[in-house]
Specification:
Number of helices: 11
CATH class of the largest domain: Alpha Beta
Bound molecules: flavin-adenine dinucleotide, sodium ion
CATH architecture of the largest domain: 3-Layer(aba) Sandwich
Keywords: FAD, Flavoprotein, Isomerase
CATH topology of the largest domain: Rossmann fold
Oligomer: single chain
Shape: globular
CATH superfamily of the largest domain: NAD(P)-binding Rossmann-like Domain
Low-confidence stretches: none
Mean pLDDT: 95
Strand order of the largest sheet: 7-6-12-13-14-11-15
GO cellular component, one term: cytosol
Structural class: alpha/beta
Protein name: UDP-galactopyranose mutase
Organism: Acrocarpospora macrocephala
Radius of gyration: 22 Å
Family: Belongs to the UDP-galactopyranose/dTDP-fucopyranose mutase family.
Order of helices and strands: EHEEEEHEEHHHHEHEEHEEEEEHEHH
Number of strands: 16
Strand content: 15-25%
Length: about 375
């Protein structure tokens, strides 16, 4: 049995069915498969929208790339992000074009490095996130691009956030403004849902939607791969793990193009959202209507009970609880914990798939082959 039909659970289910010939029951709490990678077509425009936020596929892992290409082809989409700060727009992450535009003059890579190093020298021993960021990029770029965005992401003044939240900030002293450096990048040609459905499309796989693993009672003596929240499995006995969540405000607009790009960040604190997604730009190759578009404004906040957990926070309290949950998880007979929620770790799609393939190869396959011999 697999709890959760996200990319981790689907990968495990697909391998168990296709490679081992096992019958697999996948239970999924939501009314659709795919976890957070799920997308759907906005009916009045035909535009594919990502319900849980923009998902861009990227990997340098040959094994993962080969694996996913069994289920879908990918477009040659290359992700780029821009940010609005004050009344200007700049490319992200901060690169030489951003630095030259911000300071209003042409600089060589060496000149830009020297300028930033001088500005970053202001702080020697950072005591909070603000000081840490200044020690990495200097005060002007921090104030323009990082302070407001960070405050909105964490709903907290960066001076009150621990320095450890950031160890580095992406800074490039070239004009390269591609968002991901991975060898393989793109979006599924037929959309995410077609890809994810193909993974589950096997006679030995049964998917039961709208079914919470916790409500099934004892699973019997069936081995389980659990990809729901780790603390939830144990009834939060050691306390709740902290997550951030996102709210998306979708809107269909009566215009062909709202912002000219797929993702626009908003750096200023007085703009309440952190980003605006415009989904038509993920698929310039598609024949979308010219007079309507779909956008989603993204807001970030701490997850309360009942909210979708998105990003693990990982305070010292969280880490202490996590250590205790991991001990409980190890002692749980015939249950493997995996995925983003089951391990309390942020995973990109390719990482979730790689980790599921590793669990399958190292733990699941040997267990069933051993059983078959006995
Ligand atoms: P999930 O996708 O979360 O799937 C877990 C599933 O388990 C869910 O469907 C959930 O409903 C179900 N579940 C939970 N509890 C239970 C239960 N008790 N019983 C039954 N079912 C249960 N990755 C990228 O590579 N590129 C991106 O651009 C990208 N953008 C992202 C943006 C956001 C906002 C977020 C949150 C993630 C993004 N990711 C991105 C990461 C990507 O979504 C993850 O790799 C993927 O979600 C991991 O898959 P998973 O199966 O571990 O978890
Ligand atoms: Na099926």
């Amino acid at each position: 049995m697999v709890a959760g039909a996200g990319l981790f659970g689907l990968t495990v289910a697909e391998r168990c069915a296709r490679d081992l010939g096992l019958r697999v029951l996948v239970v999924e709490r939501r009314d659709h498969i795919g976890g957070n990678a799920y997308s759907e077509v906005e009916p009045s425009t035909g535009i594919e929208v990502h319900r849980y936020g923009a998902h861009l596929f990227h990997t340098s892992n040959e094994r993962v790339w080969e694996y996913v290409n069994q289920f879908t082809a990918f477009t040659d989409y290359r992700h780029r992000v821009f940010t609005i700060a004050g009344d200007r727009v700049y490319p992200m992450p901060i690169n030489l074009a951003t630095i030259c535009a911000y300071f209003g003059r042409a600089m060589s890579p060496g000149e830009a490095r020297a300028l930033i190093a001088a500005q970053a020298g202001e702080v020697a021993h950072p005591a909070n996130l603000e000081e840490k960021a200044i020690s990495l990029v200097g005060r002007p770029l921090y104030e323009a691009f990082i302070r407001g965005y960070t405050a909105k992401q964490w709903q907290t003044d960066p001076r009150e956030l621990p320095a450890e939240i950031i160890t580095r900030l992406p800074m490039r002293y070239t004009f390269d403004d591609s968002y991901f450096a991975d060898r393989y990048q793109g979006l599924p040609v037929g959309g995410y849902t077609a890809w994810l459905e193909r993974m589950a499309d096997h006679p030995l796989i049964e998917v039961r939607l709208g079914t919470d693993f916790a409500e099934l009672g004892a699973a019997g003596n069936v081995p389980v791969v659990y990809t729901g929240p780790l603390d939830g499995y144990f009834g939060r006995a050691e306390g709740a793990l902290g997550w951030r969540t996102l709210d998306f405000e979708f809107e269909v607009l009566a215009q062909g193009d709202f912002q000219g790009t797929s993702v626009m960040n908003y750096a200023d604190e007085h703009v309440p959202y952190t980003r605006v997604h415009e989904f038509r730009h993920f698929h310039p190759e598609r024949d979308y209507p010219g007079d309507r578009t779909v956008i989603a404004r993204e807001y970030s906040r701490f997850a309360g009970p009942g909210d979708e957990p998105y990003y693990p926070i990982g305070t010292p309290t969280d880490r202490a609880r996590l250590a205790r949950y991991r001990e409980l998880a190890r002692a749980e007979k015939d249950v493997l914990f995996g995925g983003r929620l089951g391990t309390y770790t942020y995973l990109d799609m390719h990482m979730a798939i790689a980790s599921a393939l590793a669990m399958y190869g190292n733990r699941i396959r040997p267990r069933f082959l051993r059983q078959a011999r006995v």
